[in-house]
Structures are given as C-alpha cells and as structure tokens.
Amino acid sequence: MIRRRVLLSIAVVSVALPLVGSPTRASAATLAFSTVQLPDYGGEPSITSDNNGLLYVSTPSGVPNPKVTNATEPGTYRSFDKGASWGQIESPDPSSGDTCLATDQANALYWCNLAGSQGSLPLQADVWKSNIAANAACTTTAGTPPGTPNSCNWVHGNPAALGTTNPTPTPCTVPGQASYPTSCNFFGVDRQWTAASNIVAPHPIPAGYTGPQVVLMYHDFYGPSQIWVNISNDGGQTFGAPIEVLANSATVTGAVVAEGFTLCNTVPAGVQIVKPNLPHAGRIYVSWISVDVASNANGCNISMDQSFHTAWVAYSDDNGTTWTPQMVYDSGVGHDMSTPFASFTLDDRGNPYMAFNTPSPAENPAVCGAESNLGTVQSDASCMFNTYVVWCQCGGNTVSFDDGAGLIGGAAATAYQVNATPASCPTDNTRPVECGTNIYATVAAGDPGQVDVSYLHTDEIVPTGALGVGKFDPLGCDKNDEPAPPPTYPARCHWNLYGAKSLTLTSPPATASWTNVQITSAPMHYGDICNLGIACAQAVGPIPRDPRHLLDFNQETIDPTTGCAHISYADDNAGSPYGDPTNPSPHGGHLVVANEIPDPTTGICMTLTTDVTGIPEAPWAALFVPAAVVGALSWVRGRRRRTAALALN
C-alpha cells in the first residue's frame, strides 16, 4: 500500500538574477528565476501548463514502487501555485520508458508513455487522459490493475475499431486481449510526443469528431526511423492507424527532398496543433532533426554516430491526411544539433519555433576535431556549441523560417544566436564566462517574437575529435572517470542551467537582443553528458558514474495567465557517486522546476494575447466515475533511481 502524508511544500528555493558581463547585444528584458525541488529524482522531466496556469511535471522513472522491491515507476506532479510547491498525483501506468504531457482547452491532462503495460507488442506508445487532473480529488490513489477506476480517472486511448469485433485482427489486436497500445506500429516506437486541441469553425470539423483532436507523434525504432502520427478524433478515447508523415506528402518534390535527409536517422522534436480562432486553426505541426544521405553510412538509427545538422517540420491542414514538409535550418555538415534533442513550440498566434545547440556556422569541424586531438584542452572559441532559435511568422499560406533564404527555399539561412561568443577562450583565469559548451536547449513563446529559452552550460569546450563527425567524444567531459584519460579531455565538467529571454525576434538575427542569466547557484550536474542515446558508452574505472544519468532533455512551458516560463530539469549533483563533493547543489538528487519571477508591478513576464477560454467537451462516461478519494494532496517521497529502458532517447 502506498504510504501517504499531508502535502508539505519543499522550502528549498533559490533565486537567479541577471549575470553581470559584457554582452555583445543590448539587454532584451529583465529576467530572474526561483528554483523549487520536487520530492524525487528522475531524468527527462516533461512540463506543461493548462489554461489556468496549473502546472504538471512527469518523469519516466525514479519513484519507488511500493509493490516491487528495488523497483521504480514513473512520477507525475502538480502545482496549484505557479510552481512554488508540488504534490504528487497518480501516474496511469507503473511501467515507462519515456513520458510526455499535454493539455487541451478544457484543461484535461494527456500523459503519453513508451513501453508501458498496454498490449503485447514491444516498444509501443500510449496516451492516457484525465479530465479531473486539475481537481484536488486526483491524488496518488491508484487503480488495480492499471487503467481501472482511480482517483484521477485515467482512461487509456485505445486504437479505433480493434479487438474481438475487428473482423481482421492484426498482431497488435490480439482477440480477447483487454487493451492495446495506442500506437500499434509494427516498426516499434521511440521518443513520442503528444498534443491536443479542440477543432472549431472556420477550420473544417470532420464527420465523427466528438472531442478534441489528439495527436501522438514519434519515430519508428526497428524500421528506417521515419516520422509517424496516430490521430484521435474523440478527445483521445480512440486513435486511428499509424500514418507515416512523408509517405503522405501533399508535395511529391518536397517529400523526396525531405526523405533524402530523413531516411535512416531522425530525432523527434515535438508536435503541436494551432489553437482555435487563430490563422490556420487546427494545423498540425510535427518537428524533427535529421542527417543527410552521405552521413548515414556512419551508422543508422541506434548509433546516432552522425552530425544531425538539418531541422524539419511537416504540417497538415486536413487533419493529418496529407503533409507538407519544410526544412527549418541546416547548420552544415559536421555541425551537430543532436545534443541530443531540439525543442519545438508554437507561440500564442500559432507560429512555430525551434531551439537547438550547434557550433557556429564559421566553425570548421575538421579543424576543431584536430585541435581536440592535439594533447591540450580545447581553447578555440569557434568550436563552442551555441544555443540558437529559428521561427516562422506563418500568417500567410506558406511556411518560411526567418529569412527563408537557406539551403532549401523556406529554410532559415541565419539563426538567432541566444548566447554571446567570445573572441577567444584562453585556459587561464582570463577565460570569459561565456566560453564553453551549451546543450539541452528548450524554448517557449508568448506573443510573436517573444521567447524564453534555457540551456545547460559548462565552461569547458567538449572535445569532438574521436568520431570525426562533430559529435562529442564519449566520456569527453569525464576525464576523472577514465583509468587512462586522453590528455585532450578537460577535467570533469560542471554544468549549470541558464535562462535567456528576447522580446525582439521580430527584428533580424543581427539586431535582436537577449538577456541571459545563470539560474542554478551551484552546478546541477558534474561530469559527462552523452548525446548518443542508447549507444552511449558506460562509465569505466573505479567510480561507477553514468554519463546518461540525466537522460536526454529538459523542457520548458509558458503559464498563459502570466507569460512566465517554467523549466523542468534533473539535478544529480548530490555528492557520491554522481555529484561534486566539494560543491554539491542544494537541490541535488531531485527533480527541479525553475520558475520565472514576474515583474513586481505588472505581475506578468510577457504578454499573451490569445483567448484561452476553455471549450467544453462531451465527457466520456468512463472519466466521470465518482472519485474514491477526496481530500488534501499527498506526497509519495523517496529517492529515485533510473531504470533501464530500451529506448533510443
């Protein structure tokens, strides 16, 4: 039985103020954050906000499982007070490889999952829904078995028209089986994302649509790493068959070009649906990063041993029937974006944005690789991994990013650089604080051209010589963990979370201004961060550190009631075995949310002009079983450990 106690706010809070430095561009806005730890630890924390500013966080593993000794399960958390305190709620499935979150206009919560308990096929994705997640009655009380009535009334999204009534059942629809994975994709699923939105006029409402549209997006694991979606037309109760996006392109030429870059290697960045009452309402966007045909010879899919240098979207204006692909940006061969994920979002007018980390266009990957192998710590500022944003003002009928003058028409030729780049990075005490490596980019947007960004930063330039393709050297930031470390490796890297903000992306990249702050008061990670997914090398030597202990991303969302950013991240700097015993983090060993502090006069952080009034939906009968437990929120507290999961990212 799960042990409970009354909710207690964790009072470990710190505040980050703007750094003092010598920026190359004018300050864009005031920016400060507080940080609040959650009760447990877990990697890859997803975060979302509903229309009322109620926040949710999920992680795929780390919460002690009360029913299985030394086992963990996913965790889901909720904040009623703008991130100041957090309580745990029930996760709908005790088994998980990846999670993600989304909400709709009626403030229902969608929880997607990889490798869960539903169905018999390996590596499938599921979508669960709770219409009462915002209700205090939704606590940690679980149903048995998973999916049965519980305090959050989670309901699983089943494939449409499957089961014993299906006259031609497939291996995904075993007759007599009680439930099936939402994705039902025989090529397997990896790194899924989900989005939900009501469909209203003037966007055509297809026959049979009885609730919000819900899209599950992912790439396949066992096949050629293509981008797929499953779409629900009834608020996530049932989902259609898998749709391969590029195989259903509205433009043959565009699909052929996109396929040439995409075949064999993709990393999904996200899915979004343009909200009602906006231009292109109901448009579905999917986004990913990819490679090129020549680079695929280095290894397909699992190894990730390539520079993922192209970013893409595809969009559908007919509810997923056909898709139009569009390159977003090409950073250049050898300029890797897979650190390991890019971030994707829409602003409050439905314009798409991507954020990513990669070296500057002037960087020569061959030179940086050779310098990495010289026997000295890297000091060439051109070899830094920077943080970039590109976006599209998509008010018309075309989708064109920034200047649209990139390698392929409509792609950006120049991206917005978020961080400053020093002229040089000497290795003595004159080294500028901006020198180093940025990874784990996130982005959230308000009005067009107004964005919040975050990224992890170390003052070391991670070596990239060993693989010869612009990738980080395995354990290249983990010198102290090597029995015979290469002399090019820096000492173990200290990583801090940074935030950045611009209100001026309607200006060209050369003149847009940014404010950057260091959010964490002490490093939130100590050592290597691998960007090769499940191909990451395991730690060697006497200290059993894990270079993938954070898993693979942070995430960011905007509270639509305040325009303030909230960033979820994992902090494992808690001393042995992962942390720095000489400089531990006050949040070490916990999930953490960084909350942007609003302007004390206005109470907001940036403007949001979209009407966020909730649109009621027809309830599922199953969702409104009276809750068995009503009362105060409760915690389940305990130390998280990451469980192994067969997932690329």
Automatic annotation (TrEMBL):
Claim: Signal is one of the keywords in the record: yes
Keywords assigned by UniProt, alphabetized: Signal
Transmembrane intervals: none
Record lineage: Bacteria, Bacillati, Candidatus Dormiibacterota, Candidatus Dormibacteria, Candidatus Aeolococcales
InterPro entries from the UniProt entry: Sialidase_sf
Entry keyword Signal: yes
Organism: Candidatus Aeolococcus gillhamiae
Name this protein carries in UniProt: Exo-alpha-sialidase
Residues making up the signal peptide according to the UniProt record: 1-28
